[in-house]
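As a warm-up, study this chain.
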Amino acid sequence: MCDPLIVFCEGGSVIGALRSWTTYTPLLAVLLLGAVWGRDLGAVVTTLVALVLAGAILAAVHHAEVVAHRVGEPFGSLVLAVAVTIIEVALIVTLMVSGGKDSSSLARDTVFAAVMITANGIVGLCLLVGAARFGLAVFNAEGTGAALATVATLAALSLVLPTFTTSRPGPEFSAGQLAFAASASLLLYATFVVTQTVRHRDFFLPVGGASDDDEHAAPPSDRQALVSLGLLLLALVGVVGLAKVESPAIESGVAAAGFPHSFVGVVIALLVLLPETVAALRAALRDKVQTSLNLALGSAMASIGLTIPTIAIATIWLDGPLLLGLDPTQIVLLGLTVVVGVLTVVPGRATRLQGAVHLVLLAAFVFLAINP
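Now compare it with the structure written out below.
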């Protein structure tokens, strides 16, 4: 039996795939993007854009899963993590280019939100679901611990240190410090990818009783995987473009609700991490918690390791300061997340309690983002 979101099963065909909504939605997203780009939108059109944007995100999940099913783990998790990060980076850069002084901290707010959502929200939800359904959520402590250590190091170098450096006033790196942080982030991320996919691939493979149906589902052919890869790229173009079109409505909604402008970063992170959340939750429901953790921590890592270098390059033509340093409340939340994450990872298995603890940390982050 085939996974319900993967239409490329044994006996399937490209023609059958072309009849799927997951094919039409990326095309519709790109066409709609061309129709609304650069125009003032009314309430009805804004709602339509939001609906098509959500459909494009779900279509991206589907096609990323098809590609992942073809290349296998842990390459599949890497495909989706990088795809989602491309969306995030593009959104941050485009909003910073078009924004004013309030956009100087957008990169920090979005990246930190992505770390908290992945390391607490996705991890907590998947541990809770996996433990509730199978008794215990079982995973590989070596691989997950390596991923968590890399996330913690990247976050400290790029988001915590700017608060304490003295070369520039405020939570801001000097040009040399930013170049070092960007280079170190890229190097660490590349080293982790090599470790995950080449040297110690077995550390990141699912353990425990994975679904027999999922294990025996025939992988798509090379041609079918290439079709999904093309549609994935098309969906990403639609998601990035439509999210940019929708950004004024997001900023207006945040302002109308009386939330701080920094909450825009939380909304962006929630939006771009929806594919990861859906894919990770589906993996947890199939007793593949390791895949869920690969997706969650891989996204947190890519969010820092790819975003910070890109933003560092973008500062060449961006006006205004780039505020990366976290405030004391955020540093406390990040430190608590790392400590709790270590205690969760070390045993290699988790109960519903660990999942609940991570979700409470996410709730605290969202609450304090609204009421700093």
